[in-house]
Amino acid sequence: MFKPGVFLRAVESDRSLVLDELNRADMDRVLGPLLTFLGGHDVSLGLSGPSEGTRELWLIHGSESYSEMRDREVDGVRRREYVVGTDFRIIGTYNGLDAHQVYRLGSALGRRFRQIPIAPVDVPTFSRLLDTPLSHVQASEQEDVRDTLTALYDHHLRAFGETISPASFLEIPLMTGASRDGVVSLRLTEAYVASVGGWLTRQDPELRDEMGRDIVSAGVLTEEDWNWAIQQIRFLA
Fold it and tell me: In angstroms, rounded to a whole number, what is the distance separating the alpha carbons of residues 110 and 112?
């Protein structure tokens, strides 16, 4: 018996389909059956079931802005049509950097998507994004933690450019927390290693060491803390 999947359910409910980190899966297999439709052609999906009263199932391009599922009869044949409106979108996020950890988007499927690169946020925006995670830090320490993390993000952004993700840095305040006596429960350096260390092991060692010298020279971290961090990330490689 036929059961509609997430794509057809999105069409039926007149909603766009959002696929987060779509290339964590083999998208040529996941979306491969849609290639013909995404190429601009209506496609037959087979029959709704083997019993009497079954319907032909079709996925078709509509001329209206909205999407819908409709039942009708065409030349004496009962049909169930999933009509995709002109406003329907498949929106996916794509990790193009960690090539050894994700699937590549095949050229045939890639041609059917408009690909929009999104750069990392700038430093002032990152500092503002810290407002919510900093609520997990003792109030008296929030500004020091903000200054340190903003400076760390700035150094990483200048050293590694588009390969850096702010998300890992935004997790650091959640890992430091706030204890009753006002002392951060986990040192920023330890939280930095836990959150960013895995990514840092995959970066060019020369660039990483140069960035480390700049971080220490600017007083963002002490030389002792930076050396400790580098020692720890070797276990993450």
Answer: 5
Distance in angstroms (rounded) separating the CA atoms of residues 235 and 143: 31
Tell me the three state secondary structure of residue 55: coil
Contacts 24+ apart (CB under 8 A), 211-216: 211/155, 211/156, 211/158, 211/159, 211/160, 214/155, 214/159, 215/151, 215/152, 215/155
Provide the β-strand partners of residue 60: 83
pLDDT(226) > 80: yes
Name the DSSP letter for residue 81. Answer: E
Q: What is the model's pTM?
A: 0.69
Residue bearing the bigger pLDDT, 118 or 53: 118
CA nearest to 191, candidates 167, 174, 208, 178: 174
Backbone angles phi, psi at 80, to 5 degrees: -115, 120
Q: Where are the alpha helices (DSSP H) in the chain?
A: 6-12, 27-30, 35-38, 107-110, 123-129, 142-160, 166-170, 172-176, 188-200, 205-217, 223-233
| Residues in Cβ contact with 107 at an 8 Å cutoff, skipping those fewer than 6 apart | none
